[in-house]
Amino acid sequence: MPSTNIKEIAIEELVVNFLVENNGFVQRFYIGDNTGAYNVRECIDVEMLFDFLEKSQPKQIEKLKEAYGEKYKTSFLSRLQKEIKEKGIITVFRKGVKDLNAHLYLMYFEPNSNLNPESLDLWKQNIFAVARQVHYSEQNNNSLDVLILINGLPIITLELKNLLTGQTVKNAMYQYQNDRNSKEELFRFERCLVHFAVDTEEVYMTTKLEDKSTQFLPFNKGFEKGAGNPPSDSGVRTEYLWKDVFTKSCLSRLVSDFAQSITEEKKGKRIKNLIFPRYHQLDVVMKLLFESKTKGTGQKYLIQHSAGSGKSNSISWLAHQLANLYLEDGKTNVFDSILVITDRQILDKQLRDTVSSFEHTRGVLETITEGGKQLKTALESGKRIIITTIQKFPVIVDTIGELGSQKFAIIIDEAHSSTSGETIVKMNKVVGVNGEEIEEEITDEDVILEALQNRKMLNNA
Q: How far apart are the first and last CA of the chain?
């Protein structure tokens, strides 16, 4: 859309039109005669939900009808709402809902390949929808700019502002903090995946609305090695959000592989949080997955990740998704094992805890605590994810070299650093320019390079 028209059109109209016309979304209108479609109290588009369930899982719906008769919808909605309140929307999407002898899935995820027609058909049954100006409360007449739903269940809310009309992303954040009651069902924690505050220049996000205490994180691309977003031909710098992130494929991946409910200890209290990737995290993981799938082993990549921007989460997402990455046949793993290597003991614990918290299946992860023998056994047995320290890198290179038929991905955390005082900081005597002996610090990077040079670059890693 030409930049001269930005002021003439509401930004939510820009978003909705693109999602419907380009991304294959259905537009819902919760006004006039259609107000009954969206159940404000249950926070569900009931019509859309049962349209999806009855078309994709008719046998399971028949089981509900046999058990509950004409009240099967009301009964299932009650069960669904209880599951969402107890387990959160992520778990419900991933595991479905059991009701008596029926097991219904609320979403089908995009398959790893197109070789299984049944999985592909089920994925295509999903209904991705968007609605404008959604009245979300029984207590007042307030409305939300844009709501995104999958199969009738809300996953994303957006407040959108246009700089050219005098409002910015700060106004959108203020709305969430002051005008959106976190006790409303739509804004209750773990009811939606994420809430976005957006203007034509910047995007911010939060997964936990706490009224005035709500904290937002940037969801920007970055521009010229700084904050913000690069210019766009349309004049809307934030259009990547609805053009690239709000695609059916990306939203499916966000629900199935990225959004994560974790419980952390803080000041003696157990606090539950919903982790959602920031743009740079989503971008780097998706790029590396694509590179790995298309180019395979023998490649090297350098990722710069600034302090405090969620590096441990990025590594965790990458490790788990590389462990489940398949070739086009949908059956053969790209890698037999994923190694996560860190250079500091304190980081090792932090990283280990983060990677472990992202584990969906028990037994996938092994942390090396007993030395080279345990490491070698883990590598030989094809343990899916292995966490170890940089000191064991020479053992890793030797063992991988012996296991030529197996393929490995190696993620090295802070390979350039030895400043913590907890790593292999060694002093090596070398001869200086004038012939005198001087001491040179051996860094983690030196250890890695030496191990690789001794064996040359490994073709299977």
A: 45
* Among 230, 227, 225, 204, residue whose Cα is nearest residue 216: 204
Cα dihedral value 325, 328, 332, 338, nearest 10: -20
Residues contacting 317, CB < 8 A, separation 6+: 257, 258, 277, 281, 285, 358
HSE-up of residue 383 (Cα within 13 Å, Cβ side): 20
C-alpha of 3 from chain center? 32
Integer CA distances (angstroms), 189 to 88, 212, 214, in order? 8, 15, 12
Query: Which of these, 311, 313, 336, 339, lies nearest to 325 by C-alpha position?
Result: 336
Judge contact between 238 and 198, C-beta under 8 A: yes
Q: What is the three-class DSSP state of 28? A: strand
Q: Is 160 helix (H, G, I), strand (E, B) or coil?
A: strand
> What are the residue ranges of helices labelled H in 88-139?
89-95, 117-125
Q: Is 179 helix (H, G, I), strand (E, B) or coil?
A: coil
pTM more than 0.90: no
Q: What is the pLDDT of residues 276-303, one digit of tens each?
A: 999 999 999 999 999 999 998 888 899 9
- The residues, any chain, with a CB within 8 Å of residue 177's CB and separated by 6 or more, are 211, 212, 213, 214
Which residues, given as ranges, of the chain have pLDDT below 70? 1-9, 32-36, 344-353, 355-363, 415-442, 451-457
Other CB atoms closer than 10 Å to residue 288's CB: what's the count? 21
- What are 415's two structure tokens? 């390979």
* Contact assessment for residue 173 and residue 200, using Cβ atoms and an 8 Å cutoff: no
How far apart (Å, rounded) are the C-alpha atoms in residues 400 and 405? 9
Tokens (6 digits) for 48: 């859309």
Distance (Å, rounded) from C-alpha 108 to C-alpha 47?
18
DSSP string for residues in 387-402: EEEGGGHHHHHHHHHH
Residue whose C-alpha is closest to residue 300's, from 387, 425, 412: 412
Residue 13: which of 122, 205, 145, 107 has the closest Cα? Answer: 145
